[in-house]
UniProtKB/TrEMBL annotation, chain A:
Keywords noted in UniProt: ATP-binding, Nucleotide-binding, Transport
Occurrences of domain ABC transporter (ranges): 2-227
Gene3D superfamilies (alphabetical): P-loop containing nucleotide triphosphate hydrolases (3.40.50.300)
Protein known as: Multidrug ABC transporter ATP-binding protein
Single GO molecular function: ATP binding
Family: Belongs to the ABC transporter superfamily.
Domain of life per record: Bacteria
Species for this entry: Kitasatospora indigofera
Stored SUPFAM superfamilies: P-loop containing nucleoside triphosphate hydrolases
Any Pfam family hit: ABC_tran
UniProtKB/TrEMBL annotation, chain B:
Descriptive protein name: ABC transporter permease
Transmembrane helix in keyword set: yes
Coiled-coil residues: none
Top-level taxon in the UniProt lineage: Bacteria
Keyword vocabulary terms for this entry: Membrane, Transmembrane, Transmembrane helix
Transmembrane segments: 44-65, 85-108, 134-155, 175-199, 206-227, 257-278
Amino acid sequence: MIEAHRLTKRYGEKTAVDGLDFTVRPGTVTGFLGPNGAGKSTTMRMIIGLDAPTSGSVRVNGRRYAGHAAPLQEVGALLEARSIHPGRSAFNHLMALAHTHGIPRRRVDEVVGLTGLQSVAGKRAGAFSLGMGQRLGIAAALLGDPATVMLDEPVNGLDPEGVLWIRNLLTGLAAEGRTVFVSSHLMSEVALVADHLIVVGRGRLLADTTVRELVRQAGGDVVKVAAADPALLREALAGPGVEVTGQAGSEELLVTGLTARAIGLKAAEHGIALFELATRTVSLEEAFMDLTRDAVEYHGSTTGIEPQERAA
Amino acid sequence: MSTVAPSRATGPAAERPARPVHRVTGARVLRSEWAKMWSLRSTWITSGLGLLFLIAFGLIAAYQFRSRISSGRPMDRDFADATALGLSLFGTNFAQLALGVLGVLVAAGEYSTGMIRSTLAAVPRRLPVLWSKAAAYGAVALLLGTFGVFVAFLADSRILAGTRAAMTLSDAGVLRSLLGAGLYLGLVGVIGVALGALLRSVAGGISVLVASLMLVPGLVSLLPSSWQDTISPYLPSHAGEAMFALQHDASTLSPTAGLLVFVLWTVAVLAGAAVRLVRSDA
């Protein structure tokens, strides 16, 4: 359980995290989504006390993280930036962390096995690939058998097999009743594992919702229909919960609130010829983009590749 | 109390009673820091170098002295009134660099690699980490330093037996000087750790360490002589030297005063490091 209350972090003029209120509950995977620079990593750093909030507070399992007698048993965290000494072997790294809590060597061997690091445990961590580094970070996060697992961009740099492994791991941890909090800037990735979503942009909370609710809010499914007599079709479709939009003079309409099948039947009933009838599903990615459009820190521009621009 | 009890029963511990409970303690953090230190190659190499400098330079100095005497050539001023003790401590200047630099690495290395995030996530109260690092590494530097100067002295007193520089452990002040030199090297190690933690940069820590131990005395000599006489004995390097010098005069501190001043310097840097560790984001 993670509870943030008016959590705020300012670096000079810049506000990285701006009055966040949210609760991450046990037993499910909660996705923490936002564009790059939205304040996800800063929030996670504040949760485990690496950064102190400018104002507000965040509690883990009912207490400030530093107030726990055995912090590694409360929260296991994988941070985005590498947090290992490259000169130390994976095993020694984990053992050093285990010593602080008196965690036995047996548990270190266990997490090494769990993350598939057996063959490289004795090698210097600096020689690890990105994927191996992530696995070591996850091994460290699981070391204390924590009630809350928090992972910042865990699939970064993993191969497809690794990505699948993470997904299964996360759902498994949640099924055991743990709190699982996982950040990503990719909606498609999170949607596969998360039930609950916390969406941030420019440090502000944009949505605290479920995956299904987010799609519904984004408008659900839209049916595009092209008809011989759009004005007549519009009248025929009108009803409670139905919204029809279309430009004057165009034979195309966009309909929400009715299925393609229902629209086809209505058109047949009124003898209107249809040229096109297609359901367009709003993808989660689109819903996410809609939500964060105004909050994207660094907008890409495509004008640079237009021929005219290049000539100039 | 009765209001607290029910809420406790619903805590995570109650949901998973089978889970063993581990706690962070000072002794465990110390053990962790000890394990961290010796699981890096740089520790073995640099501390080995420190010991090598201490013993090798002490031996070289003694051989040089003996060969000058037997050849009958005129002596340098530095060598003329040399003692076995002074010659055997010849390596401390170099050893203090190696041991101080390793101290900086022990602390600042965690910042340059990002390891500090793992460390502080495990010990979010933070200060035990600094105390443990300083204690673990300080003890290593103390033991290595003491061992090194004793080996150098015992070897040198054999090499120099029969010359006018000859000395034995039972001579007045010798034991105190050797222990003082070991203690000095141990405290230099602690200062290295504190500088590394304070500046969070390997390069910065080493620069300040070298500057304060080797460059500042030279700079102070540019000051008017009345200022110089007041300030000079209290500089870290001069106060430290007073801990292991055999002879003391009006311009130097007594061994005890030197120890006190040097300990104060150490405590000051360590306090600065503690404040920064607690106050600033990692």
